[in-house]
Amino acid sequence: MAVVALLATRASSAPTQSPSPTISNSPSLQPSKSAQPSKSAQPSKSSEPSSQPSLVPSKSSEPSSQPSSQPSSEPSSQPSSEPSSEPSSEPSSEPSSEPSSEPSSEPSSEPSSEPSSEPSSEPSSEPSSEPSSTPSCSPSSAPTEAPSKPPGVNLFYPEWVSGKEGCRNDGDEPDYMAVNPTDWLSSTMEACCKKFFGGYRYDACMGRYPPDHDDCNTMLYYPDWSGANEGCTDDGKEPYYMLSNHQYFLSNTREECCKKFYEWNYYTCTGTKPKLTAGEYYPDWSGASDTPTCLNDDKVPEYMVTNQKWYLSKTLKQCCERHFSWDTNKCMGITEQGTNKWYVDWGTSTCVQDCAGATPCGGVAESWISASGDLFGSKKECCKKKMQWDSKCLTK
């Protein structure tokens, strides 16, 4: 028995070659951990996705065949090769390089900076606020209801219609009068009334159309070449050749006649005072040449008035510098004492001193003498340089 017990003790102290499995109905509190994962020949496939995402997501080498239901938060690095089927809700920041195939249904809020190359198909409902700078190439479709009165000079003719007896110059004389003006037409209402409505009807003729009537002048003007020839007159005594060509020789106003035939004497002809726009100082050439001066005495010659920009000046200095530049100081009335130098007096053929006293002073030298360098320090120098051919220069 002792032998059997000893053998039993030795047998239990040595492990068995194959452990005997035990089946537990409860899991162990501390699970075992293997150093290497197990490798199965076929991985398991779950029919449902996991409820928790993996810590490191997998990356596929190919895009998915179906688009995502939500747009990505980041734009793609490359544009798509096909345009979208629907327009975007916001306009693009840059215009497209190609024009649209159809015009827009609504006009733009801002007008274009350049006009279109083609006219509009329909006229605008409102006229433009500014008139065009050039007239249209086509006339208006309908004439005006009251055309303007044609310009011209109309002679007086007698009118014998009952209730309208008198003389008119509205240009509506009968043809038989127009072709024979010396017998039927007159340059003044007075001459016409005397000729055709003399006696008791003269006053009625003269009062039929007063001078302020809108289509009637009481007289016409003609150039008085056979008289004083200083202007135009309206006495009705014009020569027959002027009456026969009245559109040229006769005028409705004195100013028109003076401008046409007496432009060189316009202000005397019209009896008006000229308006001086370039100044009031004018050169006075009526005196001796050694007394140059400019005046502003309101007696400007008419030929100067007609060319004011050249003859008239706003100040005395401007006038003197323009018209008497060789002696501006004398023109301005500035008295000079001279330099006491010497210059040649060509009137006496000797050298005199530049001063305003008695001999040897020859008067203050003209400005052009000093400007030309012909003033000398002594009489001897003056004679030597300017009068060397005259041996008596020093003794004169």
Topology:
Blueprint: H1 2-13, E1 157-159, E2 166-168, H2 175-178, H3 181-184, H4 189-196, H5 202-208, E3 222-223, E4 232-233, H6 240-244, H7 246-249, H8 254-261, H9 266-270, E5 282-284, E6 293-295, H10 302-305, H11 308-311, H12 316-323, H13 328-331, E7 342-345, E8 350-353, H14 367-371, H15 379-386
Quick recap of the structure?
The protein is α+β, with helices and mostly antiparallel strands and 396 residues long. It has 15 helices and eight strands.
CA-atom Rg in angstroms: 60 Å
Question: Regions with pLDDT < 50 over 5+ consecutive residues?
Answer: 1-24, 133-141, 146-150, 212-216
- The structure class reads alpha+beta
Mean pLDDT comes to 73
Sheet with the most strands: spatial strand order: 1-2
